[in-house]
Amino acid sequence: MVKDIYVNIDEKISSVKFFVDEEYCHLKIKSEEVCLNCERKPCLSFCPAGVYRLDSNGKILINYQACLECGSCRVGCPFNNILWDYPRGGFGLNYKFG
């Protein structure tokens, strides 16, 4: 029997263990004003983990604890307005296999 190669993203994310760094956020917005003036707000859709959200005031919120460290936000923002770095050692993702 061939296993289905198309797996829901939620199933994939459930196989990831996060070690959250409460002292250092590895994702930051450079200028909130740039985001407020951005009409398309592609950051709300290009992140596979849905890290970027919009609050009721139009401000971009970052749920860095769920970051998959894919780096798509480094290249996806048309204004280069997102600072991205790997989490500090010992923090971030740990992929579980099996």
- Overall pLDDT, averaged? 86
**Order of strands in the sheet with most strands:** 1-6
Low-confidence stretches: none
Class of secondary structure makeup = alpha+beta
Q: What is the CATH architecture descriptor?
A: 2-Layer Sandwich
- Residues in helix, %: 10-25%
The geometry reads as globular
How many structural domains does the protein architecture include? Answer: 1
CATH secondary-structure class: Alpha Beta
- Content of β-strand: 15-25%
CATH topology: Alpha-Beta Plaits
Major sheet details? 2 strands, antiparallel
- Tally the beta strands: 6
**How many whole angstroms does the radius of gyration measure?**
15 Å
H and E order: HEEHHEEHEE
Count of helices? 4
Distance between the termini: 18 Å
Structural features, described:
The protein is an alpha+beta fold and 98 residues long. It has one domain (23-95): Alpha-Beta Plaits (2-Layer Sandwich), CATH 3.30.70. The chain is built from four helices and six strands; from the N terminus they run αββααββαββ. It has helices spanning 9-13, 32-37, 43-46, 72-76; strands spanning 16-19, 27-29, 52-54, 60-62, 82-84, 92-95. The chain has a two-stranded antiparallel ribbon with strand order 1-6. Strands 2-5 form a two-stranded antiparallel ribbon. Strands 3-4 form a two-stranded antiparallel sheet. Strand 3 and strand 4 form a beta hairpin. The longest helix is centred in the middle third of the chain and has 6 residues, at 32-37. The chain is globular and about 40 Å long. The mean pLDDT is 86.
